[in-house]
Amino acid sequence: MEFRVISLPPFQAASSGLVRDFDFSPESPLGKFNDYFSAITPSPRDSFMPRDFLCHAAEENAMIWLLALSEGMDSGGYEVVDCEGGFYLTYTYWDGDEETNYRLYVEALAYIEDSGVFALDIRPGHYPMGHIITPPEVISVWGRAQMETFIPIKLKEGAAPCQA
User: Fold this and answer.
1) 24 near 30, Cβ under 8 Å?
2) Beta carbons within 8 Å of 98's beta carbon, 6+ residues apart
3) How many CB atoms lie within 10 A of CB 133?
4) Gap between the Cα atoms of 82 and 84, Å rounded
5) What pTM was computed for the model?
6) CB neighbourhood size of 45 (10 A)
C-alpha cells in the first residue's frame, strides 16, 4: 500500500484566503503568503510537523494556503481561521509530477471507496491539501522536492473492525 492514514489535531492557522489565480510569483497573493511564512523559523518544539498546507477548494475553483500557528506566532496580518483537523489519507510524489499525482489521487479515491472502513470527508473548510516535506537544504542538493498530499477522510458509519 502506498497510502498511510494520519490524524491532525485541531489548530488555528493564518490563511491566504481564497485565491483563484494559481500564480506563485512574488507579487501575487500566494507569493506574498509564501514570503510571510517562509520568514518564520518555528521553535524546535514546533518543527516536528508540517506547518503550511496548500488546500484545493474545488467548489470555489480556488486555492487556500494555511500556516498552522502555535502560541504567540505572528499571523502576519492574515485572517486566522480554525481548522478542525481529523483523519487524512496521505501519499507522496515528486512536486511538479502531476501525472503521478493524478494517478495516486485516483488510486487513493478507489482505496477509500473499497476500504469498507473510510469515506471521503471533503466539504467547505475541509479540503484536500498538500505540503512540501523535503527540507530546503535537501531540495538545494536534490534539485527537487517531495510533496505529500492529504485527502480528508472519516470512518464510515457502522464500520466493523477488520478481522485478521
Assistant:
1) yes
2) none
3) 14
4) 6
5) 0.85
6) 7
Q: Which amino acid is at 73?
A: M
Under DSSP, is residue 101 helix (H, G, I), strand (E, B) or coil? helix
Per-residue DSSP letter, 43: -
* Cell numbers found for residue 44: 524546535
- Residue 137 CB partners (closer than 8 Å, separation 6+): none
CA distance 105 to 55: 14
According to DSSP, residue 21 is labeled S
H or E element at residue 137: helix 136-142
- Write the pLDDT tens digit of every residue in 24-40: 888 999 999 989 988 88
Quick one: pLDDT band at residue 163, thresholds 50, 70, 90?
low
Amino acid in position 84: E
Strand partners, 113: none
- Closest by alpha carbon to 149, among 23, 48, 53? 53
pLDDT 10s digits, 74-99: 899 999 999 999 999 999 999 999 99
Closest among 34, 37, 44, 125 to 73, alpha carbons compared:
37
User: Do 81 and 55 touch, CB atoms closer than 8 A?
Assistant: no
